[in-house]
Design goal:
The complex is a heterodimer of chains A (about 210) and B (about 300). With about 210 residues, chain A is an all-alpha fold. Chain A has helices at about 1-20, 25-45, 50-80, 90-110, 115-120, 125-140, 145-165, 170-200, 205-210. The longest helix of chain A has 29 residues, at about 50-80. The N and C termini of chain A lie far apart (about 60 Å). By secondary structure, chain B is mainly alpha-helical. Chain B has one domain. The longest helix of chain B has about 30 residues, at about 125-155. Classes of the chains: A mainly alpha (about 210), B mainly alpha (about 300).
């Protein structure tokens, strides 16, 4: 069980690096969708016995993170008619290297934490740290509003991974509430993106600071 | 040499190593044709091509020396020898000793040295360019290969290719350390694509000298020499695929009869996967290739980090 969870998490880590390295926004959305699908499978692996709630949360995650949210983002992308991220302040390769460094550091850091013995073997903690870091990097280094939304999504994915540790303790209602918040957030943002692109013909957030009447 | 596998398996190993590689190219081409909606050349076309080339005469440029002739011959010998070090499927390799993984890596390097030297020997500026690219990318692919081997050495505790590559197979499927193996598998796959000059690193079908890597180095080879080059490249693909299979598909069967067919089937499936990758991806810009190769090293390095944990 542990090794299959680790296998999933390694793919999540690989996707993090891929997201940091790609400049096409469509690829960014697809990567986030695949990550969402992988995360959706995770509650089923953590719960070894059959229970209805993990299945509900897995289904909700699969549907929301795997198809609904990426679908909305793709629609926003079509409306806004952009394809690529402009070259960010810190370039793509440096952010990818930063992400790789961060992943290495979180693996090293997680070995120093005194985790519960059943969690020490898994990659949950390093993967969660690294995914949160990837989200932060996307949020801070990218310029188009839509890539920043994806950064926010990845950030939440990291928190979701961390939540797997508390699966026994945290009620699923909380998880579902978080998912709902995320859904509403992305929903609102995609509407905003639509409006920004209609009004200003650019999604460059650098220009948003110099708005005038 | 520690032990010899029994004679039948030895014969099968050599037979597959020598006879199967062009078929892999055929499968790759057929897959690409299927994706493109074409019928494509017959599966055995690479064999026909080789037979045709072997019947032709050689045209030698007046500026070339013995180095030009040595290039294809030494390269072919090096990759065949490397193929004898790699275990195929669940069978042991014919040659196996501690540290043969270093010999394996440097047999490829030796072949590459002679190919590039032969290319430089022609004095053509195109071939010099190809040689320079080949060596640059090889420099970046080699650390990835060694880091991948390092992970497997750490995992198996053995220093020979046979025992090291058989380690994933010897364990129960559920106890395998999937996480490092996935990373190493991804890294080795990139190395496989780069070493064999497949898309996204190089396009084997392109015929524009300015953008080619491997093909441009062998522009002046003709007839049987070109045949040897193509045959050597096919064997290289076969050998690296055999290494990769141990990492990504450590399946074994208890049926002694089914073991060789299983291996052959896995090889053909991997060739089809390479065909799919070539069909759905465009070639990378030349300046982006180093990023890809560095990321292969990073993947294998992470695998090692996870092994150390």
């Amino acid at each position: 069980m542990i090794s299959s969870i680790n296998a999933l998490l390694v793919v999540v880590l690989l996707l993090n690096l891929y997201l940091l390295g790609t400049s096409r926004i469509r690829a960014l959305i697809h990567g986030a969708a695949i990550q969402g699908i992988l995360l959706g499978c995770m509650p089923l692996l953590f719960y070894e016995r059959f229970a209805p709630l993990p299945i509900v949360i897995a289904l909700a995650t699969l549907v929301l993170k795997g198809s609904v949210i990426p679908g909305m983002l793709l629609k926003a992308l079509r409306d806004a008619q952009i394809k690529r991220e402009v070259e960010p302040l810190i370039g793509l390769v440096p952010t990818m290297l930063l992400g790789a460094l961060g992943t290495g550091a979180s693996i090293a850091f997680a070995t120093r934490l005194s985790l519960a013995p059943e969690h020490a073997e898994t990659l949950v903690v390093p993967a969660a740290f690294s995914t949160v870091l990837t989200g932060f990097l996307l949020l801070t280094s990218r310029i188009k509003a839509i890539s920043q939304v994806i950064g926010y999504l990845i950030l939440e994915n990291g928190i979701f991974i961390f939540g797997m540790l508390l699966l026994e303790a945290m009620p699923f209602v909380v998880e579902l509430g978080v998912l709902l918040d995320l859904f509403v957030g992305i929903f609102v943002v995609s509407i905003i993106i639509h409006h920004i692109s209609r009004e200003f013909a650019s999604l460059d957030t650098r220009r948003l600071t110099s708005l005038k009447e | 040499m520690n032990f010899l596998p029994d004679l039948f398996d030895l014969a099968m190993h050599v037979l597959l190593l020598l006879a199967m590689p062009p078929l892999l190219l055929g499968v790759i081409n057929k897959t690409k044709a299927w994706f493109g909606g074409r019928v494509g050349p017959p599966l055995l076309q690479p064999y026909y091509d080789l037979a045709k080339l072997m019947r032709k005469d050689v045209v030698l440029s007046a500026t070339t020396t013995w180095m030009f002739l040595a290039g294809p011959v030494v390269t072919l010998a090096a990759v065949v020898l490397a193929g004898l070090l790699v275990p195929l499927g669940r069978f042991d390799a014919p040659i196996c000793f501690n540290g043969d993984l270093i010999l394996f890596a440097y047999l490829f390097a030796l072949g590459r040295f002679f190919t590039t030297a032969a290319a430089l020997d022609t004095g053509s500026s195109f071939e010099g360019m190809g040689a320079s690219r080949e060596v640059t990318f090889a420099c970046l692919a080699e650390p990835a290969l060694f880091l991948a081997f390092l992970v497997l050495v750490k995992y198996s505790g053995a220093l020979s290719l046979t025992r090291m590559l058989h380690a994933p197979m010897a364990h129960e499927l559920s106890t395998l350390p999937f996480a490092p193996l996935i990373l190493v598998g991804a890294g080795l796959f990139i190395v496989l694509l780069a070493e064999n000059c497949r898309i996204p690193v190089d396009d084997p079908n392109t015929h524009l000298e300015l953008t080619m890597i491997h093909e441009v180095m062998v522009l002046d080879h003709s007839g049987p020499l070109l045949g040897l080059v193509l045959y050597g490249a096919a064997i290289k693909l076969f050998v690296l695929s055999a290494v990769l299979l141990h990492v990504i598909a450590p399946f074994t069967t208890d049926l002694a009869v089914a073991a060789w067919p299983l291996f052959a089937f896995e090889m053909l499936a991997l060739a089809a996967v390479i065909g799919v990758v070539e069909s759905v991806m465009a070639r990378l810009q030349m300046r982006h290739v180093p990023t890809l190769l560095v990321s292969a090293s990073l993947l294998c390095g992470f695998g090692f980090l996870l092994m150390l944990r």
